[in-house]
Every structure is written in structure tokens, then in C-alpha cells.
Amino acid sequence: MPGIVIVGVQWGDEGKGKATDLLGERTDWVVKFNGGNNAGHTVVIGDEKYALHLLPSGILSDGVNAVIGNGVVVDLEVLFAELEALHARGVDTSRLKVSANAHIITQYHRTLDKVTERFLGKRQIGTTGRGIGPAYADKINRVGIRVQDLFDENILRQKVEGALDQKNHLLVKVFNRRAIAVDEIVDDLLSYAERLRPMVADTALLLDEALDRGEVVVFEGGQATMLDVDHGTYPFVTSSSATAGGASTGSGVGPNRLDRIVGIVKAYTTRVGSGPFPTELFDEQGEWLRSRGFEFGTTTGRPRRVGWYDAPITRYATRINGITDLVLTKLDILTGLDRIPVCVAYDVDGERFDEVPVNQSDFHHAKPILEYLPGWKQDITGARTFEDLPVEAQDYVLALEKMSGTRISVIGVGAARDAVIVRHDLVD
């Protein structure tokens, strides 16, 4: 099973970094295939906590080759700040490779992201303001700057001039901002070129050769299924393909090389930013979940919206991604509840929907139809086998498994690196 894709099932922040780290000792390569520094992974190793935003979380595992794929948009300032922070903590980052075809986030992308979001007012998407969307827009409009462009100053200058011809008109005439000078952008990007050069490679070729050798390659998705630009809650989505199909386009590896699709899902649900969220809680129970689960964004620090587990969303994600295994995280957070609500379907103006409605307006008005499962009081953070769990916790997992359309192979029962129960091996 050399090719393993890890994707989020909900709206992100499910604990994908921990799942990647769990595979780390048997993994040869970890590839980030989409997104940028608009999301984060928190990985706990012993007493050390690492917050990663752009780098693949596998970079923390000894001997693992980390790859930033062509589907990623790269903020070079963030990249080198993260690398320097890891160096200061003694982490070896020499195995990092960056695709020559990955696109660059520039200053004008960040500026446009922030002013455009403010301009939208009540119609804001809830972006992080880090330039992700504008960088992807330039990529699709064929006026983007790629990593390889930094090594040809003439090409780089031509591309920046072409991009700013239009963007400065927008900044000055629509948003009443100052024009951005071409030299300002070119000089900034060139300042990173020599440090970046040793990391740049034809990463698609490297990964194909690794798979030919039978090495284990993990494709680590940013964001999650419900934020996918095609299959998520559009327009309240990210700007890239966050589903399993994006692993192929975002890395240059053919889909027939992907052997297992692992979906990461919380034992409850969270999201950041605007958009529909049927099980969202606005009461004391919501505050309790947010506080116990420490639901604040790794990248933004924003409080996450919280709600109960949504089985239709998990079934939808299982189908869209072709998920073979689920990793259920943060089961321990639910400890102490007398009973645990689970969304099993939706009510839309009196009509029952057992699956996610295809019409966005219907989903926006969906109310959760809840079933209640018995809770448990015992501390489960020390459980290492399924049988170690209280019977109520076992029943909760089995009920979610039946509702979700695929097996739950791993259960997270705490923040520590080893606080997991493995029911089925993810690499076999």
C-alpha cells in the first residue's frame, strides 16, 4: 500500500497532522498537495507542541522526505520563517523538496485578499487574508508566478509587470489603495531565490520513482472536503481541491498510484469562517465543546464554530473521496456528557433529507434531525485498545461507523502522540 491520501471529512481542523504523524515511522515521503498557509496542523511530540502552517507535518519525523507539491501556493516569507523556527528547535529540515511548478503568493495577493474581503461587507467569505484565493485566481488566469520563475529574473519581471498592470488599476481606482511598484515585488522575491534553489525539484518525478521502489508516500490534504472548491459549501470554500482527487493533480502522481484514502473526522464538528453549518451550537453546550476541545484556529487563532457530529456529511465525504478508512479524533472531548446528540438527517422546510442536499439554499436552511446516544464519565485518555473504552464509548464509535459508510480504523483519545486506538492498520 505505497500511496496513501489523508483528507479532512468536515470543514477542516479534524486532526490530519496527528494522523500523518501516526504513519510517520513507516512513511518515506509526505506530500502537501493543496492549499497554502491558510490552515495549520498541530502536532504534539512528547512535551513539545509544533504548529505548522505551510510545511507538511511529516517534516517532524526522522528520515521522512517532505514535499510541497505543485498544487500548493507558497508564501516564501512564511516558508522560511517556519524552517528557521524548526531549526531553532533542532528539527532537521534538509529533506524538504519544493515543486518547481508550485505558485508563489506575493505581497499584492495578500493586499488584494484583505481589501476584497472588507469590500464584500456582509457577504464576506471568511478568508484568512493570506493571499491564497488571489494566488489561485492568478494561476487559473495564467498570470501567476511559479517557483521556477525566481531563477530567471527577466521572466520574473515580465510576469510581475503583467500582473500589476491590471491589479494596480484595481487597487487605486476601486479600493483607493496605493499602487505597488514592480521593483518592490521583484526584489522581494529574488531575495529568497538562492536559499530556495537547493530545495526545488521535479517533485512529480521524485514521487513516481519512490512509488516504483515500493516506498510509502502519504499525500496530506489541507483544509477538508466541505471546503473543496468543487464539492464543498460553495462559495464558502477554499480555492483549491481539498478532496482525494486533488492529491493526483496537486502532486503530479497518477490516480492509479493512490491505494488507500484515509478520512479524518472529529467526534463532533467544527468550522471556521462563514457558511452553512446545520449542527452548529450557540448555547452553553457549544461553549463547553469549544473550551474542552480548545477549538481555536492553529493559523488564525479565531474561535471555531462548533456543533455535533454530522453523519450525512461523513457519508458524503466518504463517497466523494472514495474513503477506505476513517480516523475518528477527539473522542475524549465528549467525556462527561450524559447523552450525545448525533445528526442523522436534515429537516428542510418540513422535508427530510438523509443525504447532503445538492441545492445550497436547502443546505443553508437545513435543521439537524438528532438521535441521542448514551454518554460516559470515565477518563479514556489512557485507552489503547477498543476494549479499554467504556461500553458507551464503544457503542458511540460503532454507531458512527454504521452511519458513516466505511470503517473507523483509528480512534484518537487524547492530544499526546500515542493517545490512539488502532482497530485496523492503515499501512498493510
UniProtKB/TrEMBL annotation:
Query: Can you tell me which residues bind GTP?
Result: 12-18, 40-42, 304, 330-332, 412-414
Enumerate the residues binding substrate.
298-304
Residues that, per the record, bind IMP = 13-16, 38-41, 128, 142, 223, 238, 302
User: Which Gene3D superfamilies did the record assign?
Assistant: Adenylosuccinate Synthetase, subunit A, domain 1, Adenylosuccinate Synthetase, subunit A, domain 2, Adenylosuccinate Synthetase, subunit A, domain 3
Q: What class of enzyme is it?
A: ligase
Q: Which cofactors?
A: Mg(2+)
Name the pathway: Purine metabolism; AMP biosynthesis via de novo pathway; AMP from IMP: step 1/2
- In which residues is Mg(2+) bound? 13, 40
The keyword Amino-acid biosynthesis appears for this protein: no
Q: Tell me the cofactor note.
A: Binds 1 Mg(2+) ion per subunit.
Q: Which reaction is this enzyme known to catalyze?
A: IMP + L-aspartate + GTP = N(6)-(1,2-dicarboxyethyl)-AMP + GDP + phosphate + 2 H(+)
Q: What is its EC number?
A: 6.3.4.4
Q: Which GO terms describe its molecular function?
A: adenylosuccinate synthase activity
Active site as annotated:
13, 41, 139
Subcellular location(s) of the protein: Cytoplasm
One Pfam family assigned to this protein is: Adenylsucc_synt
Q: What does this protein do?
A: Plays an important role in the de novo pathway of purine nucleotide biosynthesis. Catalyzes the first committed step in the biosynthesis of AMP from IMP.
Assembly and binders: Homodimer.
> Which HAMAP family does the protein's record reference?
Adenylosucc_synth (MF_00011)
**What is stated as this protein's family in its record?**
Belongs to the adenylosuccinate synthetase family.
- Output this protein's name: Adenylosuccinate synthetase
Q: Which organism is it from?
A: Microbacterium salsuginis
